[in-house]
Amino acid sequence: MKRNKPEAVQARKRQLLLLAPLALQPKLLLAGLQDKRTYKNASANQQISLPKDHAAHPEFKTEWWYFTGWLEREAPNAGAVGVQITFFRNAPTTDLGNPSRFTPSQLLFAHAAIALPERSGLIHDQIALRAGAGDTLIQQRENHTEFTLRLGSWQLKLNADDTWSANIETPLLALDLLFKPTQTPWLQGAQGFSKKGPKPEQASHYITLPQLNTTGRIRSQGKQWNVRGTTWMDHEWSTAVLDPRASGWDWIGINGSDGSALMAFVIRKKKGPDDLPDNPQTPTLWQHAELRKADGTRRVFKNVVFETSQTWLSPRTGVRYPVAPRLRLDELLFELTPLMNDQELDARSSTGTVYWEGAVEVRQLVKENAKLNNSEKTDTVWGRGYLELTGYWQPLKL
Question: 109-137 burial, b if ≥16 CB within 10 A, otherwise e?
C-alpha cells in the first residue's frame, strides 16, 4: 500500500533529522564499526525490583510505558472518552565511542490519542527527540522512589507516593492526568519474564498496573473536560522480542468490572504468497493470555484465538483491521466492541509505523450454538480496555 505522499515525505524528514548528525561523522563511524552497541536480553534469571524497575533500562534496545483508559467526562451527556498515552525509549545501533555530542545514544518518542465518539478518527499527536537534545530528561532518584521522563512539553512521572502523572501540552491536545494504583503490580508471565517466541531471547520484562484510578483534565478542539475513570498501565522492555517471521500482534488489556484484569495476545506470522490478501486471519506464532482476579488469583489459558468478526477499512491507508473480534480463551468466549471503528494511529513521524489502537468494550458470551454461530450475550459489560492491532499496515519492526 502506497503512503500518502505529503505524510510520507514529512515522516521521512523527521527520521532524517533524528539521524542526521550521524551522517556528519562518516570517518568516525567507519572507525568505530567494531565498537557497535551490544544489548542485554530479557532473562528469566533477572528478578524485577520495584519501584526501581519502573525506570528506564538503557541496556535494552526497546522500552515503553503505556497507559490506556476509559474516562467519563464530567459534563452533561458528554459520555466516555478513550485515552492512550505511550512513551518510548529506543537504543539505536550506533557507535558509542563516537565523540560527537550529537550521537544518539537513546531516542525518545511519545504518542497521545483521544477517542471522542462524536468525532470521526482519533485526535492524536506525537513527538520524537534524541535524549540530551533540547528539553529531554530521563531521571530516577537515588532511592528509586521517583522517575521522570520528559520530551519538551510531554512529561511522564512516577511520584514518591506510587502514583503516576502525565502532563502533555500540544496545539492539538492537552492531558493532565493522575493515575493512582488500587492493586498490587502484576508481573506478567514468570515473575515479569514474558515469553514472545520459542527462542530464549524472544522475551520481554513486563509489568502491568491494572485498575488505576484516574482523574484529571483533557482538552481538545477548544473544549476542556474534567474526567475520571480507570486506566491500564504496561511497562515493557526487551531487545529481541519478535521472531523474524512475525508480522505483528493482536493484544488486549482489559480492566474487568469486578476488579479482574485480563491480558491476551497472539503474535501473527507474516502472510505468504498463498494467503488471501483481504483475509486478516493469519497463523499464530506465539500466544499467551492470563486472567488475574481482584483477590490476586491467576489463571493462564492454554488456547488463545482472536476470531475475526467485523473488519474496518481505513480510508487513509487502505489497511483493513479486525476491529471487533471475538476472543476465545479455552471454554470462555468474549466479544469486543470498539468505542468507534476509526481508531487508526499514524505514527510514521515518530516510531515509523501505522497501527490500530482503540478503546473497546467487552461482553462475555455465555451460551453458544456452534452450528448456527449463535451466541447469547450477558446483559452487563464484563470490562473495558484497549485492543492493539500492529503489523497490518506493514510487518512491525522494533
Answer: bbbbbbbbeeeebbbbbbbbbbbeeeebe
CB 353 within 8 A of CB 385: no
CA dist 51 and 58 (Å) reads 16
Grid cell in block for residue 46: 533477572
Residue 383 vs residues 113, 181, 253, 335, 339: alpha-carbon distances, Å = 21, 18, 10, 11, 13
Please report the sign of the dihedral spanned by the C-alpha atoms of residue 237, residue 213, residue 86, residue 252: positive
- The more confident residue out of 2 and 239 is 239
> In 22-141, where do the E strands start and end?
62-73, 80-90, 107-115, 123-130, 136-140
* CB distance 363 to 335 below 8 Å: yes
Question: Does an H or E element contain 289, and which?
Answer: strand 284-292
pLDDT in tens, 229-238: 999 999 999 9
How many whole angstroms separate alpha carbon 314 and alpha carbon 280? Answer: 14
Percent of the chain residues past pLDDT 70, beyond the cut: 82
Q: Cα 281 to chain center, whole Å? A: 21
Name, in order, each residue with C-beta under 8 angstroms of 283's C-beta and a sequence gap of 6 or more: 268, 269
Q: Cell for 19?
A: 539521524
Q: Would the CA dihedral through 300, 383, 174, 17 be positive or negative? A: positive
What are the pLDDT digits (tens) for 310-321? 999 999 999 999
* Higher pLDDT, residue 234 or 120: 234
Q: Which residue has the cell 483481504?
A: 278
The DSSP 8-state label assigned to residue 24 in this structure reads: T
The pTM is what?
0.86
Whole-number Cα distances in Å, 374 to 97, 139, 140, 336: 63, 53, 53, 16
Q: Is the pLDDT of residue 12 over 80?
A: no
The amino acid that residue 153 corresponds to is S
* b (16+ CB within 10 A) / e for 40-59: ebbeeeeebeebebbbbbbe
As a whole number, mean pLDDT of residues 342-363 equals: 91
74's CB contacts (< 8 A; 6+ apart) are 225, 226, 227, 228
101 vs 134: CA distance, rounded Å? 13
